[in-house]
Amino acid sequence: MLTTMAATGLALSMIIAPVSAPASAPPSGPVTVSVVTVNGSGCPAGTTAVAVASDNTAFTVTYSTYLAQVGPQSAPTDIRKNCQLSLRVHVPQGFTYAIAEADYRGFADLASGATGMEQANYYFQGTAPTARVAHKFSGPFSNDWETTDRADTASLVFAPCGVDRNVNVNTELRVAAGSSDPSSTSFMTMDSTDGSIHTTYHFAWKEC
User: Fold this and answer.
1) pLDDT (tens digit, 9 = 90+) per residue, 47-60?
2) How far apart are the first and last CA of the chain?
3) What is d(CA 19, CA 108) in angstroms, rounded to the nearest whole number?
4) What H or E segment, with its residue span, contains residue 190?
5) Do the beta carbons of residue 78 and residue 41 sit within 8 Å?
C-alpha cells in the first residue's frame, strides 16, 4: 500500500467559544454524525454511509460509486469526481471537538504516463474553507492507495461549545491521461463493493 502524508491546516477561521485543557479521553456519552446534505458526481444519493466508532475517537464515511477514470470508454466528465457532504455532529454536553486527522483510502490503476490526484478540505458551517492539499500519484501504478491529512496541535480549531454546527467535507478525485497510450484506461477510486474502503476522520476532544 502506498502512503502519502501531508500536514494540512484542518483548522478554520472562526470565532470559537473558550475551551479548557484537552480531555483525557473522548466523552463516554453518545456521539452522533448524520448526513444533512450530499452533493457531487462521486456520491449520488444513497451511495454514502456514515458511522461513528464505538469509542468516539473517529467517524467513517463509506462510498460505493466514487470513481474517476479516463480512457476509450470514459465520458469527458469522468476525469473528475467530487463529493460535498454536510454532516451534523452532536456531542455530549460539556465537550467540543476538532477534526485532527483524516485518512483516505482507495484503489488506483494508472497506465504509464497517466496521473491521479486526491484532495479534500473541511470547514464548519458559516466559515471559509481550508486550503486543499493535493496528493498525486503517477503511473504505472496498480495498487491500494492511502493518504493522510493531519493538523498539528497548535492549529486545531474546535467547534463552538454548546452548538451543533455542521461540518462540511469536500473531496475530489482526478485522473489525467497524460502521455499514456490513448487505448489504455486509467482510474482512481475511493469506494469498494464490500464497503471495506472508507475515509476516517479522527476527533480531537476538549472539555468546554
Assistant:
1) 888 888 889 888 88
2) 39
3) 42
4) none
5) no
